Amino acid sequence: MSRLGLDCRQYLGSQHATDYNYDMGAIIGWIHQGFSTVMPFIILLGFLIFVHELGHFLVAKWCGVRVEVFSLGFGKRIFQYKRGDTNYCIALIPLGGYVKMFGDEMNSQIDPVDRPFSFTHKKLWQRIAIVIAGPLMNFLFAIVIFAMVSLIGEEVRRPIVGDIADDSIAYKDGFRAGDEVLSIDSEPTKTWENFQDQMNKHTNEKIQVAVHRDGSSQPVVVEATPALRLNDNILSLHEYIGDIEGMTYLSKAAVIGVMPNSLAEKFGLKTGDRIQSVNGKTVTYFRELENLFVLLQKQNVDIQVARPDDKSEKTVKLSGILPSFSSLAAMGVESPDLYLSKIVEESPAANAGLMAGDRIIAINNMVPQKWDDILNTVKNYGGQGTIDLTVLRDGQEKKFQIAPKMTSYMTQKGTEEKRYTVGIMPWIQSAPPATMTIPAENVGTAVMHGIKRTSEVTTMVVVSFLRLIQNKISPKNISGVISIGQAASETFKIGISHFLQLMGLISVNLFVLNLLPIPVLDGGHLLFYCIEGLKGTPLSMRKMEIAQQIGLVVLMSLMALSLFNDFSRVLGFW
Fold first, then answer.
1. Element (H, E) at 549
2. SS3 for 395?
3. What are the residue ranges spanned by the domains of the chain?
4. Which residues pair with 318 in a beta bridge?
5. Is-same-fold flag (157-249; 252-334)?
6. 291: phi then psi, degrees, rounded to nearest 5
7. Which end of the chain offers a freer environment for a tag, N or C, measured as fewer CB atoms within 10 Å?
8. Spatial separation of the C-alpha atoms in residues 169 and 89, rounded to whole Å
9. What is d(CA 313, CA 367) in angstroms, rounded to the nearest whole number?
10. CATH of the domain spanning 337-421, picked from 3.40.50.880, 3.40.250.10, 2.40.40.20, 2.30.42.10
């Protein structure tokens, strides 16, 4: 390789050689990026396809069916190995696989001598067993995967209370942001899910909640009464859940808004900065800044921030003596709720002249205190006239009149709503909830957890299909191979536990999807066999051919929709 580099320099000259090395570095970088993106996807699908087809293969062999081909992938074969009657191969397109069994073609003429090895000539229960074995293997594989995750240690949400509004019932009851729930009526609470389960059990009952609070050496006991409310999770079978109004595990990240000409601006802070640490102390939540900055005033501090730079962030370190001030607001730092981070192109806000960095100080003669004040005013626009908006830009007040327009909006619940929007986004960011890793005590406990988790995910997947049919979930949520590939790449980077959980989730999806009564899928074949069992005779070849054609159209339509949704998300259409 060194001789090659020398020859290039002699032939191209030093400048051209530098360009060559730069280009080679870029090419190697692209190859590495492509490898790190594609390989997790291939590993993920490879395992799931192998397990599914292995189910068909093993039961077919057990029933005495001759298996001719066991293929991972479609198209041109890049590897094959024949042993006995079976040709084992890996094909070029890793988006599926198949097990070809002797005598499974329609209208195939089978010699009487070979009928004992023919799939079509097997008893009805044997054919059902062979077909259902593939999906069942995906179900069993999910149990194994979730059990492995449990042994490694599953990341769960800690029962730590997030930001609480001062006017909420949770605050009036005595809860404070950052409280960690220790027990409810003396029953230990290990995770946020435990806390939620306890609230579900004790709706309209007084409960004694013991919490750990910073600054207190002893647990603080708070008395509260959970009330029933509609469940935001539309994938749950429970329509109502227990809740203390204002209680949440969500908190605002330490992203700041900075007033013009303030002490904070003079120190070097800017709107949109996310405070990462102060004097080496990690900062996660916005609520931490008040006490932290006030305690350090008049002292020399080092503040590390993540500052937005086009579509990325860069780390900036600010050093100096923190000025004297009485509060965070006096310093000129406030919540970024009312600061605009982005103006959507071709939106009413863009057409009116609003700009990123503007701070909203009035809307329809109302002084907003939080982002919800802006959001609710726009949502409740009646379609007549305009909304008056006053912003602060470079220390100057500017007034705008904006007519919101009706747009389709994807909610966090997965539903599609139509509401009025103006095309503005605030600097608000949510901090990730506090988590902890809980490993299983032993293999038995891990297996039980795997069964429980697989059952929960199966219920969620089945309910999601029902919600799609009921039109309670938008078809835009149907994802395809691009979304799966992106998720595989991202979870692989995060860690093996997250990657395995994604694998388990998709394995359950394959289990449910393949059991749908759509011809071409395993569920379609099972439907044919159920009809055969009821009638006493198989369906006619003509009817099965028509059903297969209809099933193929349905399946191709779903694939086209999933790809369309994937490209729409990648291109930013929604």
1. helix 541-570
2. coil
3. 157-249, 252-334, 337-421
4. 303
5. yes
6. -65, -40
7. N
8. 63
9. 31
10. 2.30.42.10
Instruction: Specify the 3-state DSSP secondary structure of 91.
Output: strand
* Cα separation of the two ends of the chain: 47
Q: Which residues pair with residue 282 across a beta bridge?
A: 277
Q: In sequence order, what DSSP letters do the residues of 400-465 get, joined into one string? A: EEE--EEEEEE-TTS-EEEEEE-SEEES--EEPPPEEEE--SSHHHHHHHHHHHHHHHHHHHHHHH
Q: Is 239 exposed, middle or buried (0-12, 13-18, 19+ CB in 10 A)?
A: exposed
Catalytic residue among 53, 154, 288, 334: 53
| Residue 296, token pair as written in the block | 């350090």
- Asked if 278 contacts 300 with a C-beta cutoff of 8 angstroms, the reply is no
According to the CATH classification, is domain 252-334 in 2.60.40.2250? no
User: Active-site residue 53, yes or no?
Assistant: yes
Token output for 149: 């995750």
- Pull the structure tokens for residue 247: 């209680």
Superfamily of segment(s) 157-249: PDZ domain (2.30.42.10)
The one-digit pLDDT tens for each residue of the chain (574 residues) are 333 333 343 333 434 444 444 455 555 555 555 556 688 888 898 899 999 999 999 999 999 999 999 999 888 888 889 998 899 999 888 878 889 998 887 666 777 887 888 888 889 999 999 999 999 999 999 999 999 999 999 889 999 999 999 999 999 999 999 999 999 999 999 999 999 999 999 999 999 999 999 878 889 999 999 999 988 888 788 888 999 999 999 999 999 999 988 899 999 999 999 999 999 899 999 999 988 888 888 889 999 999 987 777 888 999 988 888 888 888 899 999 999 999 998 899 999 999 999 999 999 989 999 999 999 999 888 878 899 999 999 888 999 999 999 887 766 666 677 888 899 999 999 999 889 998 998 999 999 999 999 999 999 999 888 888 887 777 888 888 888 888 888 888 888 899 999 999 999 999 999 998 888 889 988 998 888 888 888 877 788 888 888 888 888 888 888 888 878 777 766 5
Q: Could you write out the three-class secondary structure of 197-250?
A: HHHHHCCCCCEEEEEECCCCCCCEEEEECCEEEECCCCCCCCCEEEECCCCCCC
Q: Token pair for residue 483?
A: 């979304």
Phi, psi for 11 (deg, rounded to 5): -85, -40
Q: Per-residue DSSP letters for 265-292? A: HHHT--TT-EEEEETTEE--BGGGHHHH
